[in-house]
């Protein structure tokens, strides 16, 4: 049982928004579509909702629990869609906004007025906005509007819930609260959900699985742990966090950087060649006295403000600079000063075989 | 292939595209475009020399000069005073401002015949204004000055209403930035504000000018319609029609239509130019 | 511009002149110029209409309006407006829907064509209908059967009511469309899309979501359209034939009275149209106010 798209291609003029994309979302899953702007994530969401139609009908398919809905219009598809800027009906109260989907049903399937009221009330309860039922969208804060948009989408008991940048227009604090709330809500009602975001932290924190899009293709899909720990491409690696690049040479299962050999399991079986190693700032250990394989570097700047401390360093051999993140305790123990020489040990060194530059 | 059939039927999320576009084109075609085409059809019943002779006959030529000249002057005067009015309405507070603001649109709302007889009577020898102009040796009724006055009245709202929204949206930070850089108030106006208003002023000018060229009702009463002297082009057309000279009337109408089309085109270009500065506000 | 500090007070008070305003003298001068200009061109004529209308007393005023010719002119003007305004309203909504909610090639050309009647002299607007329907007109020469059919059924178009209605429609075609198109473009499609995703049919989307959103623009367009329809002079003048009591509209009746040197009578009838203009401006201001209020609540939230 799943929501599935197959071989979707969509172009806007000469711009390819989706390039033969396929994706399967299991029933009850919460999946994030993550990517930079222009990667096609919103187009994919709109295609699932029936707001866009693929350029290759016949080949492309959208399936809701096995049922082919590819050519079914949005109004009959029963997908719940929450728009990026909410698209609340500005002339209707919160209550009427949520009730809309039920009220527009044909007489035969429309629930009686009493039931509509009961259902809207239940949803208002769920989004904790019952006291504001009579307000108009213009009288709500951004976070409240987003919750109303969600309730409105849920009112029609959708087969799948689609959220376009649900937290995009909110400030940082409300954003964090709301995404925790969304996760709880999903654990409560278990509706199959896809949401679009360009914020990797959001995607990793909230979702069961993350699909990373780039240039209209899905670059990688997996659980947050999988994609963070095992990024399939330099793009994914870079997109999910800060990166340091170390140029050096590959030597069968190891990476030689500035004359020092570091373990790099990716390179097993590869020919000896020039390569670039990817290392996360928190995977670098800084010491005064090297105990294992280490690289000499000079401290450029030390900054201890914020929850973690950071160091800006320069390789002594090539002059390339890189950043290290370390805990406050380690930082205080080390007490580095600008200009002094230290050693760095690299962990979790990743090397990607194809050429890539950031 | 079955795919092609599906593809041929382009699915749209919102309904009614064919119906509404179809009705729009049908309505415009039937009521506007086909009757307009009749003008060009009628012109073909004239030979080229006949056509040329008609549109260049002295009363017609005099009427073009008058119509263009008076419309141009009226629009120009409106640019200056319209800008002052718009400025005052946007920037300053004074009692009765709301009423004044609402009344600016009077020339849009007041039927031209009413405006026509009112201006004619006001500026006649015995009218409130004509009476006080007479001793100064200024005559407005039955003169080209009268036509200019009527056209100024008609064009007044155009400049005010195109400049006003731009002036309202003008970011005060721009002026603050300019004064913090050492510009005095006049320099701020001349070098910062006015350039940003220029497209709107030009658009307003073009709109007022275009409206004045075709104006009929408000002009004929004050103008006296003396051939070669105070006869505007629409009156010349009217006169030919009264004599059942449809061909001649049409020939002169073609000249006016061509001018109108050119103006309409330039107004569209100007409006695009006006909005170009504002795109960042929309985003 | 340096702030002027007054040293006479114990606590120095700084008189701030805001950097984005002018000295009071300039301000007063500009206000005076604007008001003088507007008085000369707007207020004075407006006052003049009403004083002239009542110059011979209220009795004469009522008598002029009760005159059968005046009555028939008022009726004809109403008929023309009652037909032209709803038709142009439907047209405006259709055109705005097609243009604002869909993308198609040639949109800009269509926008220009809709504006066309505004840039054409009213005299030419009348002329084109004479060329189509008049004696030796297009219809008469190219479609004689249709022309005969019209004559057989005693249907006169030029110098009769249908011609007046057609000319009125022509000059008022753009009013509603021009109000609605930018409004609907600015509102975008997302509310309608949301309604569709929630299962609303096309009509439901239109009536429940679009119409409430555009109602102010619609009212605005309709009142402006109506003002022009009732006040049109040039175009109607060409196709009317000026038969008193039969094909004279209110503006034409004013002209007739004026040409008869019945100035007070002309201004009496004109005062009706001036009142209509004032009502139009009043409703227009009110609608703008409603609209601004709506916008304000939307942007402050």
Textual characterization of the structure:
The complex is a heterotrimer of chains A (358), B (283) and C (301). Chain A has ten helices and 20 strands. Chain A has helices at 41-49, 74-77, 94-103, 113-126, 142-155, 172-189, 200-206, 224-229, 234-239, 328-334, and strands at residues 2-12, 15-26, 30-34, 61-64, 67-68, 79-82, 160-164, 193-197, 209-214, 217-222, 244-250, 254-257, 260-263, 273-279, 284-287, 295-303, 309-315, 321-326, 341-346, 350-351. In chain A, β9 and β10 form a beta hairpin. In chain A, α3 crosses α4 (113-126). Chain B is globular, with a radius of gyration of 24 Å. Helix content of chain B is 78%, strand content 0%. In chain B, α2 (17-43) crosses α14 (246-276) and α4 packs antiparallel against α11. With 283 residues, chain B is mainly alpha-helical. Chain B has helices at residues 2-8, 17-43, 48-56, 58-91, 97-103, 106-109, 112-122, 128-133, 144-169, 172-180, 185-214, 217-223, 233-242, 246-276, 279-282. Chain B folds into two domains: 17-46, no CATH class; 47-282, MetI-like fold (Orthogonal Bundle). The model of chain B is unreliable at 1-9 and 279-283 (pLDDT under 50). Chain C is an all-alpha fold and 301 residues long. Chain C has helices at residues 24-53, 57-66, 68-101, 107-115, 122-133, 138-142, 144-152, 161-172, 174-187, 190-197, 202-231, 234-240, 250-259, 263-300; strands at residues 4-6, 13-15. Chain C is globular. Chain C starts with a strand and ends with a helix. The relative contact order of chain C is 0.12. Residues 1-17 of chain C have low confidence and may be disordered. Chains B and C meet through α2, α4, α5, α6 and α7 of B and α1, α3, α4, α5 and α8 of C.
* Uncertain runs of chain C: 1-17
The topology string of helices and strands of chain A comes to EEEHEEHEHHHEHEHEEHHEEEEEEEEHEE
Number of helices of chain C: 14
Query: How many helical stretches of chain A?
Result: 10
Q: Fraction of residues of chain C in helices?
A: over 70%
Estimated share of beta-strand residues of chain C: under 5%
Intertermini distance of chain A: 39 Å
List the strand order in the largest sheet of chain C: 1-2
Using only CA atoms, what is the Rg of chain C? 26 Å
Secondary structure: number of strands of chain C: 2
**Secondary-structure-derived class of chain C:** mainly alpha
Coarse morphology of chain C = globular
Tell me the strand order in the biggest sheet of chain A: 6-7-8-3-9-10
The assigned structural class of chain A equals: alpha+beta
Low-pLDDT ranges of chain A: none
Total strands of chain A: the figure is 20
State the oligomer.
Answer: heterotrimer
How much of the polypeptide of chain A forms β-strand, as a percent range? Answer: 25-35%
Q: How large, in whole angstroms, is the Cα Rg of chain A? A: 25 Å
